[in-house]
Amino acid sequence: MAQSNPARALSGSVKPRLQGWRALLTHRTFRRITQIAFAIFILYTAIRHTLVGESSTSAAASPEAYCPFGGLESLYKYITSGGSYVPHTHLSNLVLLVAVLSVAFLLRSAFCGWICPLGFLQDLVSSLSRSLQKRIPGLRRAVTSLQKRAAQLAVLDRYLRYAKYLVLAWAVGGAAYFGVMVFRDYDPWSALLNLAEFSFTPGLIVLLMTLAASFFIERPWCRYACPLGAASSLVGKISPVYLKREASACTSCKICTRSCPMGLEVHSATTIKSADCITCLECVGACPRRGALELKFDLPLVGK
Amino acid sequence: MRIHPIVYGILVVTVFVGIVLGFQAAGVWSTSGITTSDGKQVQPSTDDPSTIKGWMTLEQVSTTYRVSISEILTQFDLPSGTLPSTPLKDLETDTFSADALRTWLQSRMEPAASPPVDSPTAAAPTPQTASAPALTPTTAHEPAGYVTGAITVTAKTTIQDLLDWGVPQEAIQRVLGGPLPPLSTGVKAYVTGQGLEFSDVKAQLQAEADRVK
Fold it and tell me: Where are the domains of chain B?
């Protein structure tokens, strides 16, 4: 890596390559375990709700009761009506919203990178895509070619990322104005949770499109359309946690940029304070040099 | 200050789960509209059809709103042999939904409060409303909560409504614990603003209203 820029003296040493079980003791493993645990919990809830259902004599909570975004959609009605909710939401949605925004305030949009099951689902499809590309050269060439063409649309990518804030405004504003979740029919997460009830909505098409797109581009829903991610990223902007690239230790090998699921240009930044950063720390794990890319804690808006 | 990535992950999970568990421990948690946070089953409110939920049964609705099951079935062209224990959501058709039922019941309850020109269902007085004894309100409209001869304090009831029912001003002041707010003020809005529990105040006002009936 250092050979690519021989004129510069590097302060960081090369990270030792971990072998055996030690290779598993990393934050990447811990992140996957966390994602899997939350995904299993939601899956269990969905299956239980389907089997037991909700009636006046028995109640198995709907998995939608565990969606933090439902809390944001219900927040206006909850405040203005003195404690009632828009349909399909409950107190749990509001509590989870508080938890997500608190995490964002303290630790950036870590909910997206570490907990969100829809984000995990996209990660799974992308992993499958990478795995298939390794085994099928033709597929690898096709995907690479497609990605190169897509790279020419970088400007479009930059502007499309703002779309999630429009989705956020529409979903929250619509719920406040109409008293119902206007976004629910288009929500891929809701569509996935209601699959067992054969509730086919436009959200199912959005879900299928998201999963198909995840084959070529990582986390497309999170990048362009997720309203919860948008809300979390806005709060996360004032978080004291951020990523710092130490230029003196960095070889600009771009491994960090290539490993970023949100497509951020990590290798050229000094501090990574983009609202799109989900602090999955894939870049930190991928970086081959010690001290080149680190997670820092500092007072908000100071010293970054 | 540098944060180790694994420590960061532990912090994320701890903060997230900790907040949720904290709320749960404080009793601020409910994942269903069927039970309240203290585990009691949610019941439809006798004076507010908007509290009807899809999981509620025909029987519950029939009992709460004093409308026969056969009348509901006829109104919405539902099969006459439908069991009373059937949840409303299981009966959804092109002509029936929980929403449609709420609207219909609301229109049954409000014929006296609004001119019956918009809705054909509201135009036809039901046996209950037709036989409702006339109160002697001081205002032109029927107070909110005036339903089929009964006086019921609801979230929409105003101070003016209470006075119209004949509840003494002193009694209202005693229950509210202070001077009367503007007469158009909704009781719930006022009580909530004062940090009082609406259900407690509602019960006391209902007792006062029952006393003057």
Answer: 42-110, 140-211
